[in-house]
Amino acid sequence: IGEIRRYLRDNNSIRVSRSLRDTAYKAMKAKEAFTNEHDREPSMDELAKILDIDRGDVVMALESIVDPVSLYEPVFS
Amino acid sequence: MKTTNEMHLNFPSISANEGFARAVVSAFAVQLDPTLDELCDLKTAVSEAVTNAIVHGYKDTIGTVYIDCRLLPDNSIQIKVRDRGCGIENIEQAMEPLYTTAGDERAGLGFAVMKSFTDKLKVQSRLGGGTTVTMEKTFSPRVRKNG
Amino acid sequence: MKTTNEMHLNFPSISANEGFARAVVSAFAVQLDPTLDELCDLKTAVSEAVTNAIVHGYKDTIGTVYIDCRLLPDNSIQIKVRDRGCGIENIEQAMEPLYTTAGDERAGLGFAVMKSFTDKLKVQSRLGGGTTVTMEKTFSPRVRKNG
Ligand SMILES: Nc1ncnc2c1ncn2[C@@H]1O[C@H](COP(=O)(O)OP(=O)(O)O)[C@@H](O)[C@H]1O
Ligand SMILES: Nc1ncnc2c1ncn2[C@@H]1O[C@H](COP(=O)(O)OP(=O)(O)O)[C@@H](O)[C@H]1O
Ligand SMILES: [Mg+2]
Ligand SMILES: [Mg+2]
User: Fold this and answer.
1) From CA C37, how far away is CA A43, in angstroms rounded?
2) Do B11 and C8 touch (CB under 8 A)?
3) CATH class of residue range C5-138
4) How is chain C split into domains, by residue range?
5) Domain spanning A2-76 has what CATH number?
6) How near does any CA of chain A get to the CA of C76, in Å?
7) Which among B14, B15, C130, C136 would be 20 to 30 A from C6, CA to CA?
8) How far is CA A24 from CA A9, A74, B106, in A?
9) Which residues of chain B, if any, have pLDDT below 70?
10) Which residues contact A61 (CB under 8 A, 6 or more apart)?
11) A14-67, pLDDT tens digit by residue?
12) CA-based diameter of chain A, in Å?
């Protein structure tokens, strides 16, 4: 069973590096939506709440895209 | 084994730092490109160790919690969580699942979680001198796409 | 001013730790509930200071980089980035925008960025003894919902 679990883990688990970028992308979109609606930027805690993830994880996700602008541009321009 | 990278962190034993400690360890471990599940397991284990240092080690006082992390070349990470708190009288007993000195407040599963979520667990303690919990975890090697 | 929380970190001066240092500082600063932009500015400033310690302070050697962070009760954070590297001969000159000793490789804007992205910047250095960069940044108080 241990071996099967390891096999599944090796082959199906999402790498953090990949999922972080997805989270960062969601965070940038959530920030955009919030700013449009409330006319101010969300705080990190508000952002974490919207995304329903730990604020430490939001920090890490944003870290995976060193400059948020570089993520932003190809998507929105 | 040769260390490829390391970091040393310390902070006061206040509960606000539990989440911080978890975030730091995962930001460091991410260099080994773990999977989400692997990282989650590691964070849970670190949480338990840090919580123990805060709530048991330093109980009603504020002391300093030390975290030392090393990356080893076989894609594993070693994490030491240290306190200079009250220490543990009987380590074997403390590590038994469901054993707790905190009555109804705690489940007594901290060490059991650390053990099952890492590959190696060592607990050293001296009454009045403090406690050091050493954990090691090896991450699965990255699977090549189309490879 | 009384410190409400603090943390102390150190790691070897390898470039893999630039991103790590940034992540740690933001994981710590997030307790003050900044906006993403505020956090981004802080991270950029920290990056510049850590990069300088690595590429200038320790140049062709590997040394230890120290980061000390304090949260102050007025919603501000103080960050010290220290190295025990070569030191800076003329601090004023070094802080001038576009001044660099790295030729074409670097833009000479590190200190200018630190200055504009934080509220306070202090540089202390001793030739042969190392450099300490102290930055402070106050985050805007949160706007209460329905308030
Ligand atoms: N760092 C520590 N310092 C002192 N005592 C500790 C420490 N860590 C654990 N202990 C002791 O070991 C017991 C078991 O720990 P654990 O398995 O985490 O369960 P719990 O924290 O739920 O009590 C604790 O109740 C406490 O008595
Ligand atoms: N930690 C440091 N140790 C030694 N010298 C430094 C340090 N930080 C900065 N310097 C000196 O100050 C100069 C200007 O730094 P900076 O404004 O960041 O520009 P740059 O890094 O692009 O050269 C550097 O070229 C270097 O000579
Ligand atoms: Mg426990
Ligand atoms: Mg620079």
Assistant:
1) 9
2) yes
3) alpha beta
4) 5-138
5) 1.10.10.10
6) 15
7) C130
8) 23, 14, 35
9) 1, 142-147
10) A20, A21, A23, A24, A27
11) 788 888 888 899 999 999 999 999 999 999 999 999 999 988 889 888 887 765
12) 53
